[in-house]
Amino acid sequence: GQQANSLHTRAAGSVSGLHIFHKEGDHEDLAPQLVPLDYTTCPDVKVPYELIGSMPELKDNPFRQRIAQVFSEDGDGHMTLDNFLDMFSVMSEMAPRDLKAYYAFKIYDFNNDDYICAWDLEQTVTKLTRGELSAEEVSLVCEKVLDEADGDHDGRLSLEDFQNMILRAPDFLSTFHIRI
Amino acid sequence: VEWSGECLRSCRREVQIKVEEKEDETEESSSEEEEEVEDKLPRRESLRPKRKRTRDVINEDDPEPEPEDEETRKAREKERRRRLKRGAEAKKFVSENEGALGKGKGKRWFAFKMMMAKKWAKFLRDFENFKAACVPWENKIKAIESQFGSSVASYFLFLRWMYGVNMVLFILTFSLIMLPEYLWGLPYGSLPRKTVPRAEEASAANFGVLYDFNGLAQYSVLFYGYYDNKRTIGWMNFRLPLSYFLVGIMCIGYSFLVVLKAMTKNIGDDGGGDDNTFNFSWKVFTSWDYLIGNPETADNKFNSITMNFKEAITEEKAAQVEENVHLIRFLRFLANFFVFLTLGGSGYLIFWAVKRSQEFAQQDPDTLGWWEKNEMNMVMSLLGMFCPTLFDLFAELEDYHPLIALKWLLGRIFALLLGNLYVFILALMDEINNKIEEEKLVKANITLWEANMIKAYNASFSENSTGPPFFVHPADVPRGPCWETMVGQEFVRLTVSDVLTTYVTILIGDFLRACFVRFCNYCWCWDLEYGYPSYTEFDISGNVLALIFNQGMIWMGSFFAPSLPGINILRLHTSMYFQCWAVMCCNVPEARVFKASRSNNFYLGMLLLILFLSTMPVLYMIVSLPPSFDCGPFSGKNRMFEVIGETLEHDFPSWMAKILRQLSNPGLVIAVILVMVLAIYYLNATAKGQKAANLDLKKKMKMLQLLVASNKYPESPEKVHFALLFKSNAICERPENKHC
């Protein structure tokens, strides 16, 4: 919470004004009947998850449901304009590495217990391979991951373990990125 | 400053500002009212009870002060002085910040400042937006990224970056060399070097001749030979030879700077990772490419991820299989032997082609067909096309892990292209030496010709000058062979033929093949789309290498043909559109996605190497070959760099020339070199030290994590990290840092 807030203020400048404007337009286009044209009175409008999940940038992503849940207000996938902007701000090119790592951790933490446990890993691997690996192979992969990245040997990945591992990955910045 | 606000039921508001000293009775107060003017309600003042000033209140209510003795009187004096001082400070503070409160004399200035600050912030934001909107081709690249993933898009990002670099080179050469000569130099036809020779005049404007960059194209600002060697030209006294030389050097310097800057920017991204510690973790968490926005690509990506996992798992399980080591070693040796043969063969082919082209140059151009004229360029392009496939074939023998095989392939293609380039340069040097020999003969001829002309001139003078004045048309003057223009022409021709080859390859290899597969699939025995030939994949490394080597040509040739950066700009511009179209229309995403993951720096490293290797011949030519005697801005000098010495003598005051001559004293130069070597050593040591300190900190962090986990602190992790980090440090033992 605290950490996220401080990282958030850093990321506030990440998305350039042009992109925000473009994305605001997008938010309207998703649901023109829901989204009012004038936001000055700060209306409380939420775009339902189904519409978010059908956006061209997200519709082929196996983790789109988790992304929407992480960035939405109540964790149910329905997003307000602020959530929407936050999502694209974090996923943009300019967001700092540790901010991305923090949100990546939350996305891959399926049961929201602040740890990536073996079950979360299994879910991730299954989603990545669309169920084409056998159960034995999936569990072997999860074991290997915990072997490699679990620094405090408690059988699950904490935020520190995850950050330690992901910040060294050469591809992380280029793959954890949505261009708008 | 204490604010006290009173809100009434009406919409008027009153703001009171009281500056109050805590211990003191003195009070400085300025209270004003700010009212929302309501016409109906009466003004507050008349209704408000008169507020007594506290000073007066105190004076009224206090009892009579007691008679004082000396000490208390002094204390009171001191007290009073202190009060006055603080009162003055408070007054100053209020008067300075009155404006911020919307009151007093500072109000307008403050409001103005605020407005300007807001306008400035808005202007900066708009400017940032404008800059972001100016970046070209962003939408195209996004479309490609979403369909093909980030590795294919990296080629186009690289292309765009090269476009930027070339744009700067073009601006330099155009504005400082071509434009001045065009505006202020002597026009076409005024000097022998600027005119097409009489013998070639008839065909000077033919398309065939122009396409070869002979004829009118040769005698224009596009090439070195057109430029005059006068020290200054035009009314501004623009020093063209000096500018030519300096721009050449500046282009090289700028290219080095920009490539190094790009490389150092990428170094930070690596994080010093070791490749294999987090193999599976990285596969799980970073293999999905969030840029993908296309179901077909997503399909491919899922498949490749699954395959990746399966391979990694089998590798993990079958770690200790001992195959027949000797057979593998023999096969690898065989493969390398074949590769060596191929490289040697291609080098010899190029050398032979260059020799042949020299023979053709001696013959009459009309007897040569199109192939003979373009033979050498065709040979180089075809070799560049077919040899990589051969290398791929040989790599089957080797049986390496695909990533390693990719690196070997890239290395071999690089060696091939490099070898070709250098054979080309050697052949060129051969020709240059020939031309320099030829020049001596031509010089001898010219002295004879001049003698004839003088005789004719005297003869015409002795007659009664009734005939037309004696005049030798520039086109009739015999010319020396201009080796610099010849070099420039070779590079320009090579670039143009390279462009055409690439485009034709894409059209035939990709587009026609795609059409064939798509439309003939209905009436074919086997499924063309899944079997052979199917659609082509976009060959990232081949394209990037081609781009890098073409840039090497540009760097080599732009000193002798100032138009070369301009031609390259055109080429890159059209390439961008053409290749974007071809990729989206005819290619499919790669089935096996292998990224040489640090490939960004790999390609930049190759670019740097090529830059270095291509500027070496140019510098060699500048420093050691004599310029032609009758063409170019350095004609008449012994060496090209003498233009600097000449400028120093003529244009700088004499004391400066003396100083610079002292500076080139060998003793001083050696001392400077020693200092630079020492600086390099020192910086290297510092960098090593910092890396070690970095590793040390990382280890400490790991220890802390263990500590935190074992102690199970309920507080937030950062606080604990901070506390433990400092606890373990000697700094905390000092008394002043007790708060640690």
TrEMBL record, chain A:
CDD domains: EFh (cd00051). Keywords: Calcium, Magnesium, Metal-binding, Repeat. Residues 137-172 form the EF-hand domain. InterPro entries: CIBP (IPR051433), EF-hand-dom_pair (IPR011992), EF_Hand_1_Ca_BS (IPR018247), EF_hand_dom (IPR002048). Pfam families: EF-hand_7. GO terms for molecular function: calcium ion binding; magnesium ion binding. PANTHER family: CALCIUM AND INTEGRIN BINDING FAMILY MEMBER 2, CALCIUM AND INTEGRIN-BINDING FAMILY MEMBER 3. This is CIB3 protein. The gene is CIB3.
UniProtKB/TrEMBL annotation, chain B:
It comes from the Eukaryota. GO terms for biological process: detection of mechanical stimulus involved in sensory perception of sound. It is a multi-pass membrane protein. The chain crosses the membrane at residues 163-184, 238-260, 333-354, 409-429, 602-623, 663-683. The keyword Nuclease does not apply. Residues 22-38, 59-70 have a biased composition (Acidic residues). Residues 39-48 have a biased composition (Basic and acidic residues). Keywords: Membrane, Transmembrane, Transmembrane helix. Residues 482-597 form the TMC domain. GO terms for cellular component: plasma membrane. InterPro entries: TMC (IPR038900), TMC_dom (IPR012496). Residues 18-84 are annotated as: Disordered. It is found in: Membrane. The keyword Transmembrane applies. Belongs to the TMC family. This is Transmembrane channel-like protein. It comes from Homo sapiens (Human). The lineage of its organism: Eukaryota, Metazoa, Chordata, Craniata, Vertebrata.
